[in-house]
Amino acid sequence: MSGLLYCEKCGSRMRFRVGENKKQGQHWSALCYHQYKDGSKCEQRGKVMDVDFFIALYDRIIHVDPNILLEIELHGSRYNDTKVIIEFKEQELKNQKQALDKLHESYEEDLVTKQVFLERKFIRSKQIQKLEEELKDLRKVVVDEGNYPTVEQIYERMGEFRELWSIAVTNEEKNRALKKLLERIMYDREGNRVGLTVCYK
Q1: Which residues make beta-bridge pairs with 197?
Q2: I need a labelling partner for 143 at 20 to 30 A (CA). Which of 39, 42, 168, 180 fits?
């Protein structure tokens, strides 16, 4: 679990402590040690990482939340929509630049006055600048969205995870299997109920 477990309440990475008692013997606990700027500590409650914890985690990982799948599908749809918008804006930018070139030609051939040329040039130049800024922002969005996994990729990694987990013996091997599939695991405890939200890579 090293490097994967995060506190849902404050967003900090959780740490692990080894303990020992008569009932459980030696055991590991996941704890949040985050301290806020005002000196107060995160109110997150820790959890002994027993067999039940790992069974619940494994179950949560292999049964992907339908809401997560829907979010991924919507994300893919937004990605495709953004690409279409970029194509449209690129064509619009090309048209504006061609129109500016024709305006220059018209001025050079004395078909428009200097005043008309300057006014139209100002308008075209502003439109070109606006489109270039919009395209720059849209391309950043596409890069970010392109790094988002598809539903197919999630299931492919799920298969790899199951295979690695089934043959894992050491904690290090299990950790590698988890990191193959997950970005992080968000932990939250209310009373005896432990909530685990998995964030896929």
Answers
A1: 186
A2: 180
**How long a stretch of residues is the chain?**
201
> Model confidence over 16-72: pLDDT tens digits?
998 887 776 788 899 999 999 999 999 999 988 888 888 888 888 888 777 777 777
* 9 residue type, one letter: K
| Measured distance CA(188)–CA(199) in Å, rounded | 14
Q: pLDDT tens digits, residue range 98-123?
A: 999 999 999 999 999 999 999 999 99
- The token duo for 107 is 């001025």
Give the closest residue to 49 by CA, choosing from 74, 14, 100, 77: 14
The pTM is what? 0.56
b/e map 104-113, b = 16+ CB within 10 Å: eeebeeeebe
As a three-state string, the secondary structure of the chain is CCCCEEECCCCCECEEEEEEECCCEEEEEEECCCECCCCCECCCCCEECCHHHHHHHHHHHHCCCHHHHHHHHHHHHHHHHHHHHHHHHHHHHHHHHHHHHHHHHHHHCCCCCHHHHHHHHHHHHHHHHHHHHHHHHHHHHHHHHHCCCCHHHHHHHHHHHHHHHHHCCCHHHHHHHHHHHEEEEEEEEECCEEEEEEEEC
Radius of gyration of the chain (CA): 28
